[in-house]
Amino acid sequence: MSLSTLLLSLLGLAVAAFFVGFARARLLAHGEERSLHSRPGYHGGYLALWTSLPAVIVLLIWAAVEPRLIDGQVQATLPAQVLQGSEAQIGLTMSVVRSVASGIKTFSREELQAAKANPQEAQRLLSQKGIVVASAPDAAIIQSAQLLDNLKRKSRLAQTFVAALLAISGFAFAFFRISLNLRARNRVERVIVGALMAASSVAILTTVGIVLSVLFESLDFFKRVSVIDFLTGTVWDPRFADAGAAGNTEGQFGLVPLMWGTLYISFVALLVAVPIGLLAAIYMSEYAHPKVRATVKPLLEMLAGIPTIVYGFFAVITVGPFLNFVGSKAGLVIQPTSVLTAGVVMGIMIIPFVSSLSDDIISAVPRSLREGSYGLGATQSETIKRVVLPAALPGIVGAILLAASRAIGETMIVVLAAGIAANLTLNPFESVTTITVKIVSQLTGDLEFNTPQTLVAFALGLTLFILTLGLNVYALYIVRKYREQYE
Prior knowledge:
Layout: H1 3-29, H2 40-75, H3 80-83, H4 87-104, H5 109-117, H6 119-128, H7 139-175, H8 184-224, H9 227-232, E1 236-237, E2 252-253, H10 256-287, H11 290-301, H12 308-329, H13 339-363, H14 367-375, H15 380-408, H16 412-417, H17 435-442, H18 452-483
Antiparallel strand pairs: 1-2
Helix pairs in contact: 1-2, 1-7, 2-7, 2-8, 4-7, 5-6, 8-18, 10-13, 10-15, 12-13, 13-15, 14-15, 15-18, 17-18
């Protein structure tokens, strides 16, 4: 029985156990629920948890451990020349074994014997089953695939038996413990609290895992390339330089042009998004009729739902040629792929981050502040400038920095609208590139994860993480500083 089928079966058993526990609690109470410590629903939940939860936990652990144990046993049966090869060769052979195993489980005994005797016949039989392998599998591969299929089959049988045993044992244990004085509510809520704690820890553990994985790979990169050269270098050329020569063959990994391009494009995007978004937020929260606000705000928020690749097409087809045409009329040379093109389109994309969040923040300012300002004789515009905006400033700064983080992490718009050339220039009409673009380009291709050309992507990711972390820390500082003035 497959894992998904087992989990669905346990879910069905848990539902049945709930109703059994519910009925038993009511039967013990003889219709007087006040004599029970906990309501019958908690007794049902208590029985359902004991029926399903231990089995589910064991199955999940089993599913995590089983592939490694089985692959280890199967890998030990591979031919010696394969085991003496590289990890890539062993991995490729194991993938062939898995493909063959998925096909031979439907073979008859005669077909299996014919496949072991003739690799070409084995390949033909597999193709009839819809399994395509690059080369004809020999007898050793088929033997390993047969072992893999047998081990998986035995594992499924053992899995089913253990799950059934735990479910029956848990049901019997909990069923006979149901009584008038059973603190079922306390125990069920304790399990629920544990589940909530586990769910809340997922984000923390995910963040820790991301940071550690990026950090360790970055340290491996910095063992090969100097940190000083990486942080202060002004040339980005990760390809092997002077191949075959006795000199430097590591290439050049200067971060400065990538960092400059990232910050430059993000700055232009914020120049576009912040004024438009903030003014739109002020209009919708302070001036617009409720019907107008109910129509305009969803239309603005639709911009956030457009895929970034569509924005990239819009930049390449419309914005870039338009800016190039306008520049030619004004005597300027504006490349279709430039800082200006990418910044304008990216600014349009992040307008909802500024406008929608700022609108919600401004609307949350207490009405009493506005009425107090009006009572002192201030006009609506003066109230907005002197009272509402200062009170909402921490939230507005947070919205702007969230938009900045979104701009810094953008990739597709930059690839299509700004180019991939790592240039260090002040001219907004020229092409530049960003950190995210180079992360993608360095991880694209057949390079192994043991060369500086690939490991540099993790160093770039660590740099981007530190940059966004700095933005968040600064936003927290601003929020705390101005919040104290209005407490």
